[in-house]
Amino acid sequence: MHRSKWVLLALSCLLVIIAGCGKANNANTSAANGNAATGGQTKELRDVKFVLDWSPNTNHTGLYVAQAKGFYEEEGLKLDILLPGSGGADAMVASGEVPFGISYQESVTQGRTQGVPLVSIAAVIQHNTSGFAAPVDRSIKAPKDFEGKTYGGWGSPVEEAVMKSIMDIDGGDVNKVKIINMGEADFFTAVKRDIDFAWIFYAWTGIEAELRGEPLDMLYVKDYSDKLDYYTPVISTNEKQIKDDPELIKAFLRATSKGYQYAIQHPEEAADILLNAVPDLDKDLVIASQKWLSPKYQDDAARWGEQKQSVWQNYSDWMYEKKLIEKPLDADAAFTNDFLPENK
């Protein structure tokens, strides 16, 4: 459920990949609009690829619901959901290898300031559900309590910058935290072996901890600064896709929005659909996670997927202040609500 450990490496490779590819797949730019069935005649469905950021989980449920319920077929589309390749989802989307994928505001921001043409077209979750988590026996109740503890991460400069930001607010010193790369170990293995806390999405790892009977102290980063209440994850496309085939994006988001709306209204049924599509997932975890996460997809937004300019501006300003990006972001170009369906 956490972001890829190779985000920075993938971003560094994107410009090379884009230069090599330079064009969208012909299948992504061919005309194939309209419903799957009209007037008794069946039209050929248009194949559309979507790449996940990680293994399937409840961040992705709306996609699987829309696929199972035929919402994509109603738009004349046949969705193929892919796992990311070695270069990562952002590279695949930015290069035009696939038209859509899961990304994060953080990586879209980093990418765009390096000339990578990613654009966020929908927020999967309206508010940041991530934060620093520790078993309760580590007595981490506030950011200052990170002092003297060991943090396990994936090696991104963003981690220490966020930690420093919230520790500064609480009067703590980030230099008193031991930071290590936890590698491929999962959270539960790592906290038993060599770390005290890590950055998690509560909807997955936090819910799993509840089911295991291993209570956590959870410090949500958004609770310490409005600038850290950013969109994670998002659905992204690339600038060429927007220019060449905006109607495909509209059709894709009409179906996807229906999938997430269904998951909001029917979390248990949506969980069953995800489990049917990915039977290797833990049933109890998926159901409990879906119940926790479904209300948070849209939350206080006017419609699912909607993004605010202020959220993009605030977070990119924070990244620039912390020297995580080399120049300010043109926030208006980094996202768009133009392709989301209007509320009915």
Automatic annotation (TrEMBL):
Q: Which GO terms describe its biological process?
A: thiamine biosynthetic process
List residues of the SsuA/THI5-like domain: 57-270
Q: Which Pfam families match?
A: NMT1
Please list which residues make up the signal peptide. Answer: 1-26
Please provide the record's keywords in A-Z order.
Answer: Signal
Asked if the keyword Cell division belongs to this entry, the reply reads no
PANTHER family found in the cross-reference section: 4-AMINO-5-HYDROXYMETHYL-2-METHYLPYRIMIDINE PHOSPHATE SYNTHASE THI11-RELATED (PTHR31528), THIAMINE BIOSYNTHESIS PROTEIN HI_0357-RELATED (PTHR31528:SF3)
Q: What is this protein called?
A: ABC transporter substrate-binding protein
This chain's source organism reads Paenibacillus lutimineralis
